[in-house]
């Protein structure tokens, strides 16, 4: 099954492909040769799963997106104090190629403008410019998770036309920011901008920053964790040049753009995003790239100042109906079938506030379980809230699972209207498959019925009086006496048969056909179903042990036919035939022992 995240990205790319605004970069001749139609979007999770759409394998030069990674390398090599004496961290509000220097010290205002990037290229470790370059390319490769190379033609084009950057380099030398030969550091800057990447590389580089400097797939540490927040802070305030303020306000993710058409965006602890589309606006940012990030941020709730949590924390325990079956008491044939197939019903316990990245993780786990699953029960009992975008993805996934004949149902949302609202309103109006159950027992019984229906086991069942569990073992002559004493009665679907707290009327009920639910009231006004009884089962039998009030409510789930035996009739029959009472109490004891065993099984499953 295709992930809803992948479906969304494919749809987003289709929508953006029609945007024709912007121009190719032409001040570097080689960049003007790009195909304006190229467009790709990649998203990488914190456990290294990549979703990509469009021209995701098309290589292009990284350009200014290299700046935060070389800045990161300088911080790792020389330390914060040394680097910040040479390069500031204040937004300039100017274009990327502006000559923005501190009037007192001559230091560039930040490492994201060209002046600051040329300076940081000179600050990485290495005794020679060649050694410094080896350090730069090795560091960028660690962020990408593979060995990177450069586009020699673009490098030559940058070097041959970079007159303004040469002037900036000499100014940095004049103020003592660059200690060695400025042209050597400048050539390393041209090389770093000419590094070849594709959209997936950008997303993995962003994800490495989002993951605290640890590459989510290779496990290699590309940057000490203590420097990650400094890099992301500068990206957030300076990464989009004179669009940085509007970007942070509207889109809300640390980001960096490049005139090759790339953009990276980082959502710490959640996602790394890479976009590639070479048409640029007047500020040098990818037109489609900005719109893609805007849509992702709005649709997935990715603004950095929104509430979020660790994605994997969205999913707690996963177990099956083999460990926690429904509380119904089916016929032996039904129980045998359910015992054989119960593992195909999966409970997934969701936790905390569910955002898009948490839903993505949950859906991915569900997809992994598809080969051995007939139904998923999403237990929402410990969910604090869910974003509208996460609810929409969950419903899209539910519909796609339904296309593979796998049901997804919700349970235990009772009373939390905000969660129910998003889940129910984001379901398509034509969708009639959204199901939310008050408790897990109702949910798992529905799923069991689905299994039984698949096996043609869920047929109308009618039993004889002698097949009722409470009467098992009675000699034929005693069973005949009971048959003469019972009264038959039919109950309509939804009709209450017994009510909690009412005085016991001395009746014991034996089910001939149909099913009833045994409910106990909860403090919040809801009810908890504790059992479903079917043909051959009985209820009201606690009157035989002296109980004077009904301890539960019994509701007919469908049309129910019952035999009703009055306790006074039992006393009368047992007076002449003591074996009747002995048999009833023995069977009642066995039934209570079985209920205790199943209750213990449920407790163990939920512990």
List keywords for this structure.
single chain; about 600 residues; alpha+beta; Beta-lactamase; Transcription Regulator spoIIAA; 5-stranded mixed beta sheet
Plain-language structure description:
There is one protein chain. With 607 residues, this protein is of the alpha+beta class. The chain folds into three domains: 4-300, Beta-lactamase (3-Layer(aba) Sandwich), CATH 3.40.710; 311-454, Transcription Regulator spoIIAA, CATH 3.30.750; 465-606, Jelly Rolls, CATH 2.60.120.10. Helix content is 41%, strand content 18%. The chain contains 20 helices and 21 strands. The protein has a five-stranded antiparallel sheet with strand order 2-1-7-6-5. It is rod-shaped and about 120 Å long. 47% of the residues are buried. The model has no long low-confidence stretch (mean pLDDT 88).
SSE blueprint and pairings:
Elements: H1 4-16, E1 40-45, E2 50-54, E3 60-61, H2 67-78, H3 80-86, H4 114-121, H5 129-144, H6 152-161, H7 163-174, H8 182-193, E4 196-197, H9 199-210, H10 225-238, H11 244-250, E5 255-257, E6 262-267, E7 271-276, H12 287-300, E8 315-320, E9 328-329, H13 332-341, E10 345-354, H14 356-369, E11 375-386, H15 388-403, E12 407-411, H16 417-425, E13 436-437, H17 440-454, H18 476-485, E14 487-491, E15 496-498, E16 507-513, E17 516-521, E18 527-533, E19 538-539, E20 553-556, E21 560-566, H19 567-576, H20 578-606
Parallel strand pairs: 9-18, 10-11, 11-12, 12-13
Antiparallel strand pairs: 1-2, 1-7, 3-4, 5-6, 6-7, 8-10, 14-21, 15-20, 16-19, 16-21, 17-18, 17-20
Helix pairs in contact: 2-3, 2-10, 4-7, 4-8, 5-8, 5-9, 6-8, 7-8, 14-15, 19-20
């Amino acid at each position: 099954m295709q992930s809803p995240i992948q479906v969304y990205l494919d749809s987003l790319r289709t929508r953006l492909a029609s945007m024709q605004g912007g121009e190719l970069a032409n001040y570097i001749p080689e960049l003007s040769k790009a195909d304006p139609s190229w467009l790709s979007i990649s998203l990488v999770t914190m456990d290294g799963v990549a979703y990509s759409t469009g021209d995701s394998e098309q290589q292009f030069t990284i350009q200014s997106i290299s700046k935060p990674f070389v800045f990161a390398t300088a911080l790792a090599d020389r330390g914060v104090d040394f680097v910040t004496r040479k390069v500031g961290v204040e937004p300039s509000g100017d274009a990327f190629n502006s000559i923005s220097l501190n009037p007192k010290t001559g230091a560039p205002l930040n490492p994201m403008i060209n002046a600051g990037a040329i300076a940081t290229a000179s600050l990485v470790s290495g005794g020679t410019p060649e050694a410094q370059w080896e350090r730069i390319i090795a560091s960028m490769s660690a962020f990408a998770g593979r060995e990177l190379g450069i586009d020699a033609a673009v490098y030559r084009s940058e070097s041959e036309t970079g007159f303004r950057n040469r002037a900036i380099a000499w100014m940095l030398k004049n103020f003592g920011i660059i200690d060695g030969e400025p042209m050597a550091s400048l050539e390393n800057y041209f090389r770093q901008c000419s590094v070849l990447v594709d959209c997936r590389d950008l997303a993995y580089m962003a994800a490495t920053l989002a993951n605290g400097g640890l590459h989510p797939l290779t496990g290699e540490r590309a940057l000490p964790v203590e420097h990650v927040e400094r890099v992301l802070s500068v990206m957030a305030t300076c990464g989009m040049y004179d669009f940085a303020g509007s970007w942070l306000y509207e889109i809300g993710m640390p980001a960096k753009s490049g005139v090759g058409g790339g953009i990276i965006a980082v959502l710490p602890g959640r996602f790394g995003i890479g976009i590639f589309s070479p048409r640029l606006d007047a500020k040098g940012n990818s037109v489609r790239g900005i719109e893609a990030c805007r849509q992702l941020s709005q649709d997935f709730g990715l603004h950095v100042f929104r509430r979020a949590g660790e994605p994997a924390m969205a999913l707690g325990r996963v177990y099956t109906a083999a460990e926690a079956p429904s509380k119904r008491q089916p016929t032996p044939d039904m129980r045998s079938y359910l015992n054989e197939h119960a593992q195909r019903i999966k409970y997934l316990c969701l936790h905390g506030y569910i955002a898009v990245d948490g839903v993505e993780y949950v859906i991915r786990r569900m997809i992994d379980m598809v080969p051995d699953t007939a139904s998923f029960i999403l237990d929402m009992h410990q969910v604090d809230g869910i974003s509208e975008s996460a609810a929409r993805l969950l419903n899209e996934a539910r519909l796609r699972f339904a296309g593979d004949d796998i049901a997804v149902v919700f349970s235990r949302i009772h009373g939390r209207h905000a969660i129910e609202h998003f889940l129910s309103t984001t379901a398509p109006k034509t969708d009639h498959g959204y199901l939310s159950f008050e408790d897990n027992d109702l949910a798992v019984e529905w799923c069991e019925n689905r299994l039984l229906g698949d096996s043609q086991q869920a047929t109308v069942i009618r039993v004889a009086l002698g097949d009722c569990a409470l009467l098992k073992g009675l000699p034929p002559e005693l069973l005949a006496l009971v048959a003469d004493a019972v009264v038959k009665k039919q109950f309509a679907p939804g009709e209450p048969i017994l009510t909690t707290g009412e005085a016991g009327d001395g009746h014991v009920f034996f089910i001939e056909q149909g099913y009833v639910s045994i409910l106990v009231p909860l403090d919040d006004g809801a009810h908890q179903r504790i059992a479903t009884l079917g043909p051959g089962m009985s209820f009201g039998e606690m009157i035989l042990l002296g109980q004077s009030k009904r301890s539960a409510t019994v509701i007919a789930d469908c049309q129910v036919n019952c035999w009703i035996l009055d306790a006074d009739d039992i006393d009368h029959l047992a007076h002449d035939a003591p074996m009747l009472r002995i048999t009833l109490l023995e069977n009642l004891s066995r039934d209570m022992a079985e209920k205790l065993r199943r209750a213990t099984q449920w407790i163990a499953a939920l512990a």
